[in-house]
Amino acid sequence: MLGHNYPVLRWVGVPHFTIFCVILTAIMLPLVDQTAASSRQLRSTELQRKRSAGWEPSV
């Protein structure tokens, strides 16, 4: 977390990463709430995960 992207000010990486995660969470939470309302999208997401992992579909 420290160093690689900030070679001069290594300590800047931790606050930047924390702020980035908080902002991303604020953006993603409403999107997750919208997709949770649609069971069709959740089923297709589950099938995609299973297919990507190499599991047999259980539909």
SSE map:
Elements: H1 13-36, H2 39-53
Mean residue pLDDT: 72
Question: Shape from CA axes?
Answer: elongated
In terms of DSSP E residues, the strand content is under 5%
Total count of strands: 0
Radius of gyration: 18 Å
Whole-Å distance between the termini?
Answer: 41 Å
- Largest sheet properties: none
Q: Which ranges are low-confidence, i.e. pLDDT below 50, for 5 or more consecutive residues? A: none
The ordered string of helix (H) and strand (E) elements is: HH
Structural class: mainly alpha
Question: Helix share of residues?
Answer: 55-70%
Number of helical stretches of at least 4 residues: 2
Fold and architecture overview:
It is a single chain. This protein is an all-alpha fold and 59 residues long. It is 66% helix and 0% strand.
Kindly list the characteristics that best describe this protein:
elongated, 2 helices, 59 residues, mainly alpha
Write a brief structural summary.
It is built from 2 helices and no strands.
